[in-house]
Amino acid sequence: MGVFNRTAMISLLDQVVFQGEKYQYPVYGVIKNTSFFATAYNQHRGCYLAISEFRRLLFVECNALTGAPIRMGALVFEDLVSSKIKKASFGQYKIVLEFMVDGKKKKFTFRIAKKVYGTDFDEQEYNCEGIVSELKKICSNRK
After folding, report:
1. Is 29 in contact with 47 (CB distance < 8 Å)?
2. Which of 12, 33, 41, 120 is most buried, judged by most C-beta within 10 A?
């Protein structure tokens, strides 16, 4: 099995939650590196996403080769400024969320797919539909 698997996903997401906090719809996806120093080879990285019961989007950005966490955290939906959720090709979704982080607007671009071949993400399709549905509800309530 590859470096991206269900066990790693759950283990890493469990490190982001507060004590007693639960999350739902954990998915594997890709996050776009939007930093000024992003190069062609490190522009997209694997990530894990989930929605917390405390109205937070949990994320863990990972090294594409080793699966080691690079950055992890949670984005509070009360700080959401704008959002776009589009269905892309081959059952993928492109999710662009802009949050106020430390007084500045910060854009996060995620891509998630219903199927992740060669992995043990057996619930990916169900969780993909669930997280997209929840994000659409949350985002529509923020406008």
Report:
1. yes
2. 12
Give the dihedral of Cα atoms 99, 103, 105, 110; nearest 10 deg.
Answer: -40
> What pTM did the predictor assign?
0.87
What does the pLDDT look like over 120-129, one tens digit per residue? 899 999 999 9
Q: What is the pLDDT of residues 66-121, one digit of tens each?
A: 889 999 999 999 999 999 999 988 779 999 999 999 999 999 999 999 988 878 89
- For residue 57, give the amino acid letter: L
